[in-house]
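Example record for the data management plan.
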Amino acid sequence: MLLRQHTQAFATLSVWFPETADLPPGCFYLKDWSENAGIAEALKQAGIIVPVTVLGFVKSGFIRASVYRLAGGDHTCDQCGQAYELPSFQQPEVDGLCPECAAKKMSNV
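Corresponding structural encoding:
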């Protein structure tokens, strides 16, 4: 993913690791070190990206890359990390879960 200023590439935001293949669609590891230091915080405050903390991070040498996704009108499941739209019928006891995880939780109750 490239961040552009006018028509010029300003920064490369995403970084690829072998673990990238296991991320849910729309999620990526963000490069927030070296020349990109502080960019994650600025993009979070601007409402452009959302951390997907349930998916953790990957370490490589001295760096640590966390998982993010682009912000939108949807939410991130606290259990599986998938982005989902919040249904109007969502039960309070399963808030924070996508419909699939909420259904699994309710069937175990």
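Summary line stored alongside the record: The chain has a mean pLDDT of 77.
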